[in-house]
Design brief:
- The structure is a single chain.
- By secondary structure, this protein is an alpha+beta fold.
- The protein folds into four domains: 117 residues, Immunoglobulin-like (Sandwich); 71 residues; 122 residues; 141 residues, Glutaredoxin (3-Layer(aba) Sandwich).
- The chain is built from 14 helices and 16 strands.
- The strands form three sheets. Strands 1, 2, 3, 4, 5, 6, 7, 8 and 9 form a nine-stranded mixed β-sheet that branches. A five-stranded mixed β-sheet has the order 14-13-12-15-16.
- A hairpin with a 5-residue loop joins strand 15 and strand 16.
- Helix 2 packs antiparallel against helix 3, helix 6 packs antiparallel against helix 7 and helix 7 packs antiparallel against helix 8.
- The longest helix has 32 residues.
- The chain is elongated and about 100 Å long.
Length: 493
């Protein structure tokens, strides 16, 4: 039997505040669930619920020996939250998956093998449907394996008649299972198990339209998929949070299908989805928290813009009632600092003196008035080991492109050092070929404007010919030429 890794931690420590209560519970008379497990040797068994692709311990029950064998009773005055549950042995082996939904007064007979043929529910109609589905699936899988084996043999023997025959039978068996699932969904649309099965069904995507000139809309099907991806998932039912289906869907949608989409595109689809969750506070809470953390911590270029959008349209609109004041202030501050520095924003012009440190404005230099089409703003501290190492790498790229006659950027290097003597010494010793500015004088507080107080050194921004920000984070120095090349290609499309 496959061993299960169970997280044996009290559930409330892992489930965020507000997600511990279940909205859609039809039973108000607590729970009384009896498990009769033939052959069990456990003094105690555990009840766990799925949450965020993990199993969270909910309860435990001690053995009672009866004339029919070991019995385990879970009884209490409050109902459990609805979801998909697992009964687990004392040694953390899985015995049974079942639905907790509606009436929580039922009994189960099973054994220690985990075989669906050995399971019987009493007074739990939804779990009867689950068992019927499982048995149907086991039979269909066996038939499918036999058909594939026969198909492979026919293919090997070059018997086209049998290849066609088994192809048709495989197609018919798939249709039979699909029809069976949709029949279950249509007969019991409010069952949690029905909603789970509906959520696993693929979206039917129509053919792309063709215009009057015969040109096919090449992006239509992808856009249709993104727009209708959630059609089969009830985003107003928080019971789905306590099943293993929801988070993989989120990851597929946002971290796979839209991984490299423009921030405005991602924001558009977030704004389509979140309103569907708002009728269920717990679902909305989960989605906002998941999306906020996902995009705040993402390493993908442009995802900081998605984070800012989520905060501005949700947290700062007073819609996230569960957020405490300190966390809300943290999000507000972070969004305020990030927003002016997002990709596509006009950069703030810097006018800072060079190492002459004179009040002669002819020695003050503008980040806007650089000869090359691109400008790298390079914030560094002369006493920072990482800054020194990265500056040498930048010098290597700079010199390499200069020697080839292909350097299309200037470097505007800003020293963050209160000790101007040390800074001047550093610049003189390294003899960097780019413009070096710094000190305590400037047209703006450049450390505040470019969020260096919070982000720290070194920091990098790349500006285009309009001095708009096209990169707002440090990348590998040897990736700069490729980044600019790709930007040129996108710009010229």
């Amino acid at each position: 039997m496959k061993k299960l890794v169970l997280i044996l931690i009290i559930a409330c420590t892992l489930i965020p505040t507000g997600l511990q209560a279940q909205k859609k519970t039809t039973s108000t008379k607590g729970h009384n669930i009896v498990f009769n497990i033939e052959g069990a040797k456990d003094e105690k068994v555990f009840l766990a619920v799925y949450f965020r692709e993990k199993l969270i311990l909910k309860d435990s029950a001690n053995v009672t020996m009866t004339k029919n064998g070991p019995q385990y009773i879970f009884k209490g005055d409050e109902p459990y939250q609805g979801g998909l549950y697992k009964l687990v042995s004392q040694k953390h082996y899985p015995y049974l998956d079942f639905i907790m939904d509606g009436s929580q007064n039922f009994s189960v007979s099973c054994d220690t093998t985990g075989l669906v043929e050995k399971v019987v529910f009493t007074d739990s109609p939804q779990n009867d449907e689950v068992l019927a589905f499982q048995r149907k699936t086991v039979t269909a899988q066996k038939q499918m394996n036999e058909l594939h084996s026969a198909y492979d043999a026919a293919k090997k023997d070059n018997n086209q008649a049998d290849v066609d025959k088994y192809t048709e039978e495989i197609k018919n068996l798939n249709k039979e299972m699909k029809d069976y699932i949709w029949d279950l969904i249509n007969r019991h649309p409010d069952y949690l198990f029905s909603k789970m099965q509906r959520g696993y069904q693929e979206i039917d995507i129509p053919d792309a339209p063709v215009d009057a000139n015969g040109k096919i809309d090449s992006t239509f099907q992808f856009r249709y998929f993104l727009t209708h991806y959630w059609d089969n998932i009830d985003l107003g039912d928080s019971r789905l949070l306590f099943t293993p289906m929801l988070e993989p869907k989120l990851k597929e949608y946002f971290n796979k299908m839209m991984k490299y989409q423009e921030p405005d595109t991602i924001n558009h689809y977030i704004d389509l989805i979140l309103p569907k969750t708002e009728k269920d506070t717990l679902m909305y809470h989960f989605f906002v928290d998941w999306l906020t953390y996902n995009f705040e911590t993402s390493k993908i270029l442009g995802h900081d813009g998605v984070f800012v959008h989520i905060v501005n349209t949700n947290h700062l609109k007073g819609k996230c009632k569960w957020i405490d004041e300190d966390l809300l202030k943290k999000y507000e501050k972070r969004a305020k600092h990030l927003e002016p520095l997002l990709i596509g924003k006009q950069s703030v012009e810097l006018i800072i003196p060079d190492t002459s440190m004179t009040d002669d404005f002819s020695k003050w230099h503008s980040s806007y008035r650089m000869p090359k089409p691109y400008v790298i703003l390079w914030f560094y501290d002369p006493d920072c080991p990482t800054c020194k190492k990265e500056s040498k790498k930048l010098r290597a790229v700079y010199d390499s492109l200069e020697n080839l006659g292909k350097r299309n950027f200037d470097v505007y290097a800003i020293a963050n050092d209160a000790d101007t003597a040390r800074w001047k010494k550093y610049v003189k010793e390294n003899n960097y070929p780019w413009l070096n500015v710094g000190g305590n004088k400037a047209n703006v507080d450049y450390l505040e404007v470019y969020n260096i107080y919070e982000a720290g050194n070194p920091a990098m921004f790349i500006l285009n010919e309009k001095r708009e920000i096209i990169l707002n984070r440090r990348i590998e120095m040897n990736s700069i030429p490729e980044f600019l090349e790709q930007y040129e290609k996108r710009k010229n499309k």
